[in-house]
Write a structure and sequence with these properties.
By secondary structure, this protein is an all-alpha fold. Helices cover 76% and strands 0% of the residues.
Length: 317
């Protein structure tokens, strides 16, 4: 044993001797409790030596001393060759005290009446002391359990708050996009085509495959004289369709006519327009022969197409 271990052992032995002496005085001298524990209340002075169990402080100090003695005894029977000699000593003593303080809690749990006989008035104090001792005995695990629960609750609330924030952001984002589409359509209706194109282009950045918006964009581009761009837009609209739309092919044929494209390609698109649009497309052809399709009126291919589908143009006055 080194010097530190020798000093610690001597201190422990002295402590054990003093503790035994105190207990001996306590149980052999009926009036010793007043002197030892400095209880000066009138009730304490009036109690005779045979009623030691009625004094609230006496059981407390007895438990403290016995816990210390038990800890020292446990330490003395331990392997004292360890390098952590002093730390192990403290561990055994603290464990002994806490274990002793948990005895009232144990008595309460098993329904024993011993606590009532020892200190009926302060019984709950000793039970509370036992609960605190139990918590202290498993302090690290107890604190970790509480902190883990708090962290879980905080994380759960943070996750919920984040989800709500994301949902709110998504809704705001969706509303903003729909407003762009609606405002673009309103400008188109008012024949404010340049303003409509600005908003439609902004909307199409978010939804580049929205066929309706692409078709409206082509409509506006044609009205401001940008026919090539209108043809590109209508081709994009047709390419984004899950199901062919006859009017889209008709619009494409109109833009191709204005750009003086190949007549065979124009007729092919008109055939597709009739195939997928039926009578609505026929009415559109009759209406547009005075404007967009006017250049086709002297084309044999177009005249044959009209006869094939029984499209009767109004007679020129």
């Amino acid at each position: 044993m080194n010097t530190s271990q020798i000093i610690t052992t001597i201190a422990a032995v002295i402590f054990a001797v003093v503790s035994i002496a105190i207990l001996t005085i306590l149980f052999t001298n009926p009036n010793a409790e007043v002197a030892l524990f400095s209880i000066t209340t009138p009730e304490a002075k009036a109690v005779d030596g045979s009623s030691i169990a009625m004094w609230v402080h006496a059981p407390f100090f007895m438990m403290l001393i016995l816990g210390l003695l038990g800890g020292v005894l446990s330490w003395l029977t331990f392997d004292n060759t360890s390098k952590l000699f002093s730390r192990i000593c403290c561990k055994h003593i603290i464990t002994g005290i806490l274990a002793t303080f948990m005895v009232p809690l144990f008595l309460q749990m098993i329904g024993s009446g011993l606590l009532d006989e020892i200190s009926n008035t302060h019984k709950q104090f000793y039970v509370f002391l036992g609960i605190c001792s139990a918590a202290a005995f498993v302090a690290q695990r107890f604190a970790t359990s509480i902190s883990d629960q708090l962290i879980k609750d905080a994380n759960r609330k943070a996750t919920q708050a984040e989800q709500k924030a994301e949902e709110a952001t998504t809704k705001t984002y969706e509303i903003h996009i729909e407003q762009l589409k609606l405002q673009g359509s309103m400008h188109m209706i008012k024949h404010e085509f340049e303003e409509a194109l600005i908003l439609m282009n902004q909307y199409l950045e978010y939804n580049p495959k929205d066929s309706n918006s692409l078709c409206r964009k082509a409509f506006c581009l044609k009205r401001v004289g940008r026919i090539e761009k209108a043809l590109e837009a209508i081709n994009a609209a047709i390419g984004s369709l899950d199901k062919p739309n006859g009017i889209y092919f008709f619009n494409k044929a109109c833009y191709m006519t204005l750009l003086d494209k190949n007549i065979k390609e124009i007729i092919e698109n008109l055939e597709l327009a009739i195939l997928h649009g039926g009578s609505d497309v026929k009415q559109a052809i009759i209406k547009d022969c005075d404007c967009d399709l006017k250049a086709l009126l002297d084309k044999p291919e177009f005249i044959s197409f009209l006869k094939k589908h029984n499209v009767d143009l109004p007679k020129q006055g």
